[in-house]
Structures are given as C-alpha cells and as structure tokens.
Design a protein that fits this description.
The protein is an alpha+beta fold. Helix content is 22%, strand content 20%. It has twelve helices and 25 strands. It has a six-stranded antiparallel β-sheet, with helices on one face. It has a three-stranded antiparallel β-sheet with strand order 9-10-11. The protein has a three-stranded mixed β-sheet with strand order 17-20-18, with no helix packed on it. The longest helix has 21 residues, at 99-119.
C-alpha cells in the first residue's frame, strides 16, 4: 500500500513527497478555492481530496485517492452554486430561501448516480460509490485516462470522416438510449462531455441533475451554446424530453463531421440557417445529412423523437413518414425538399402566439454549401475499419435517401454589402478558435485548412501561416486559407520511468507519439515497485520524431513473490 504522504495532490502519483511534483508540476502548497474542500481532506474515512478540477451549478469535482483499493478517482461533491455554503468545519448548509431547489437537486443527484452504478455501461462514466456525508452527497468515479472530444478534434485537424465516426458514435447512441430507458435525460451532450479514452472509445460524462441543464430552474444553469436545444432556454410552450438529447447528439455529430458548431438554438428561432463545406457535402452519405437535419429541428415536435429513430436514420436510412421530392442541384449548393406526413402528436392548443408563429416558420433546416474544410485524423485503419458497403444503404438510392429539408428563399434583389473588414492575425491560434460563433472578429470570414507542416515555432494544432496578410481589408465572407502546425519535427522525449503503464502512455500521447507505436514489454525487477516503467527506448531526453516506435518496459514483479518467500527468474 502506498503511503498517502508520498502522493502528489495534483495527480495522485507517488512522487516521494516532493514539494513540486516532478510528474505533473503541481506545487503542494497550492490551495483549493475558498468554497471548495481543502486538499488532504478525508471523506468517508477512505477518500483523500486532492486538487480542485472544476465546478458548475451542480457541484465541485476534485481529483482524489481511493485508499480502499489504492487507485486514482474523481470526487464529485453536490454543492449547487448560490444555494449552498461551506461551513468552517467543511460541512455544507443551505442558503436561506433555497431549501427547495437544494433538496430537489440533492435527491436527483443521489438517484441519478445510484441508477448509473446499476447500469454498468462502459460507454457511460458512472460512479463506483455514492453516499451522504457532511450535509451533502458525494459520488466517486474511476479516473479514465482521456481527453475531451473537443480537444481531440482540435488536435487532429478539426473533423472526422463518417466511416470513422460511425463505429465511435453507435455505441454512444445505444448508451444514451439506455439512459432514457431508465428515466434519465442527459441534456448536456457535447464535445465537452464526451471523452476519448486511450482505448480509442467514446465515454459519456457529465450526467447531471436536470436543474442545471435548463434556465429558470432555481439552479445556476450550464448550457453548451450550439448544442443545447431551444427547450432548455425556458421558452414558453417548449418542454425537454428524449428529443432534447437527440438535438445535442446531432449537434455534436455535426461538429465532428463538419468542423463547425451549429448556430445557437435560440438564434435559429429567429433566423434559421446552417452551413456545411462542399467537400463534406460530397463525402457524407445523404441519409446521414438527412438524419442530422431531422435531429436538429428547432421545434421539439418537428424533431426526431428518440435515439432509436435517430440510429435507424443514421445507420439504415429508415426515415419514417417521409416522401422525397427531387430538386435541381447546382454546382455550389444542394437543396432538396422533404415532405413529412402529418404527425400523430400535434402541438397542444392554447400555447403562446409566439410559439405558434415559430412552429409555422421553423419546420426544417437549411444546409447550404459555402466553404471547404480539410478533415484529418491520427487514428489508424485498425481502429477505424473501412466502410462496410454491404450493410449500408447506398447514398445514390433516392428511395432510401431522403435529403435535407429547406426553408425560406434567397432574395436576389438584396443589396450587396461592400463594407471592408481587416483580416486578423491568426498565427498561433487553434483552428477551432476561428469557428467560435460568438467571436465577432472571426465570424466575418470563411476559414479553410490549406495544409499542414512541421514547425519549431508553433505548437501542434496551431496556425503557422495564412494566405491573406493580417491587416488586409477584404469583403465579408472572404475565404482565408491557413496552414496548421504538426509541431516540431523532433522533440525531446519525456521521462516516463517510474510511472505506471496508463500514465506513461498518456504522457507520450500528450507529446504527440502515436498510440499504435507505443510497445509495452514486460521486465522483472524485484527491487522496484510493481507495474511501473523500469526503462524506456528511446531514452529520456532523446531528440526524436513523434512517429518513431517507443518501448516502455513494465515491471512484471507483483510483490507477492517477496511476501511468500518464493523467488522467480526473469
């Protein structure tokens, strides 16, 4: 058993009790924010609280140590912002007047995590324990070596192809359906709440109390612009349900396949327009585009109702109650109208006049070809197999391939905007920064990845150069081509000796080494800690290209031989 006095409270690795952790750089004198638990605080006489990680309207997350099975965990504390306060003895009490939202959220938090524990779905990051203490509730989660889908996309060119996305997202869709079958609606699916594990699989996190995923709930809302559905904004007559997760998941698919975040739902209520690059429109199967169009309907009753229907539309092209009408296709845009038969469930009478007006206008999604974005990824063919055309519906078949709905018309007599705008300096920025719909400086231009190159000056994934010089005045909508950095051609390999296999691999992956090029070799040494890296090739500090093969030698000594008095040969 590792002595907790030797643990770094920033990463929970054994660093020998050093003040500055040589593994993660955490300073042991660092304090957590005032309203959070302090480091080295014990919960349930088993869990050691470490560094503060994050917080939202529901609570606070810390890195932690499970002293029961000697493992790194994440500790989630129910501490609703504005409704809870920290007492001097670190217990939690309710802010006067906030008793109802606090207690409602606490019961929701408790029941949700108990349900997640019972599901045991590998695609859902679920708690291993949940219990009441200190006037609140705690949920304990195993720490998963991973990065967010947002970060993964940023590092790897911005998009993935449908052939790569399909095997990743189908298990995720099934996992969300399982949540729905057990009475849980996520309401926060986004690239921020989906993790890419070191196993190459997606893991859904961020299942929270419903109050923080909608406005006017009494809790501080946490909505993800572009991914949150209109019904989460407190609009009269709109109510969340299973179709709320359909919207969020389709928006996440849109970001993954297209490379841009959909416009915010409330903005689409006023003016609905969405865009995809020409290259993406050519490569993505028609039934997938149609499924996204149906899943991204602004009005809930016009949207795909549940995950089962969404999966059928995406995978099988089985879009129910749709009649396809062919339209002319120009060289720059494809618009085809989808007629939907009358739905069995109609909007209830008595809703606001505004809701009725919105329903009349927002009955479809516009997909217009306006720009091209280069899609790349570091995943290997083994992880993303070639598309199985035997089981897929042909994208050329109009019978099974309803196309995207269209609304509105183009005003050919509109005046041309001749105002000029200064092109910003993009060097050092991430391409994802340019896609921020809330950044007024960038929204005036179209951005395209022209290529990639090695750079000692710019970090991997950042912009090296642009074809339009910064400061040049151009018309709105001008396309700016950029070159993305592949990072330094050679880097100094990190020291992973002394780390366990998982953390060693994560450290190498952070530096840009390919997962498939990291080879694990067993080596026996009874004088060293079990299951840690004894040696590495290339050696620490060696200048190498990130595409080279790396060997890490893991100690196969388990410690049991020493305790039993039995010796083993290497």
């Amino acid at each position: 058993m590792i002595s907790t006095e030797r643990l770094c409270l920033g990463c929970m690795n054994d660093n020998g009790g050093e003040k500055i952790c040589p593994i993660c750089g955490y300073d042991s004198t660092t304090k957590n924010p005032d309203d959070s638990l302090p480091t080295s605080f014990w919960i349930n006489d088993r869990y050691l609280v470490g560094k503060y990680i994050s917080s939202n309207g529901e609570g606070i997350t810390y890195i932690g140590w499970d002293n029961g099975d000697n493992s790194i965990v994440n500790i989630r504390e129910y501490f609703p912002k504005g409704n809870a306060k920290r007492n001097p003895d670190k217990t939690v009490s309710i802010v006067k007047g906030c008793e109802y939202p606090f207690n409602e959220g606490l019961m929701d938090f408790l029941e949700i995590n108990k349900t997640l524990i019972s599901l045991q779905n590998p695609c859902i990051v679920s708690a291993t324990a949940v219990f009441e203490e200190n006037g609140t509730v705690y949920a304990i989660f195993k720490s998963i070596p991973s990065i967010t889908l947002r970060e993964f996309l940023t590092r790897n060119g911005g998009t993935l192809k449908w052939e790569q996305v399909k095997p990743l997202f189908v298990p995720l869709i099934d996992a969300v359906k399982q949540l729905h079958d057990n009475g849980i609606i996520h309401r926060g699916i986004s690239p921020e709440t989906i993790l890419v594990g070191r196993d190459g699989k997606l893991h859904l996190t961020g299942v929270s109390v419903k109050g923080i995923r909608r406005n006017n709930s009494g809790l501080t809302a946490q909505l993800f612009p572009g991914y949150a559905a209109a019904e989460q904004y407190g609009i009269e007559g709109l109510h969340d349900d299973k179709y709320t997760d359909v919207y969020s998941l389709c928006a996440t698919l849109f970001r993954t396949l297209i490379g841009t975040v959909p416009p915010e739902a409330v903005a689409r209520l006023e003016k609905d327009a969405m865009t995809i690059p020409a290259k993406a429109a050519e490569e993505i199967p028609h039934n997938v585009l149609s499924a996204l169009a149906n899943g991204l309907q602004v009005i809930p009753l016009e949207r795909t109702a549940n995950m089962e229907l969404l999966k059928n539309e995406l995978i099988n092209g089985e879009i129910a109650s749709v009649q396809v009408e062919k339209k002319a296709v120009s060289s720059t845009a494809k618009k085809v109208t989808v007629k939907k038969e009358e739905k069995a469930e109609q909007p209830k009478k008595g809703k606001s006049a505004k809701y009725a007006a919105i329903s009349a206008v927002c009955t479809a999604v516009v997909f217009i070809v306006v720009a091209a974005v280069l899609a790349t990824t570091v995943f290997k063919d083994e992880l993303f197999p070639e598309k199985d055309t035997s089981s897929a519906v042909s994208s050329e078949s109009s019978e099974y391939t309803p196309s995207v709905a269209a609304i509105g018309t183009v005003d050919s007599g509109a005046a041309v905007d001749v105002k000029l705008y200064s092109v910003p300096d993009l060097s050092g920025k991430y391409f994802s920064d340019l896609l921020d719909t809330e950044n007024e400086e960038y929204e005036k231009f179209q951005f395209v990845i022209k290529g990639k190159e090695y750079s000692d000056k710019f970090a991997k994934g950042t912009i090296v150069s642009q074809n339009v010089v910064a400061g040049t005045n151009v018309e709105k909508g001008t396309t700016v081509e950029v070159v993305i950095s592949l990072g330094a051609k050679e880097i100094k390999i990190a020291n992973v000796v002394g780390l366990d296999e998982t953390n060693a691999k994560m450290e190498l992956l952070k530096q840009g080494f390919l997962y498939d090029n990291i080879e694990v070799v067993q080596k026996y040494n009874p004088d060293k800690e079990p299951d840690v890296v004894l040696e590495q090739e290339p050696a620490y500090g060696s200048a190498v290209n990130t595409e080279v093969a790396v060997k890490i030698y893991i100690n196969s000594f388990t410690g049991e031989e020493a305790s039993s008095g039995v010796t083993s040969a290497e």
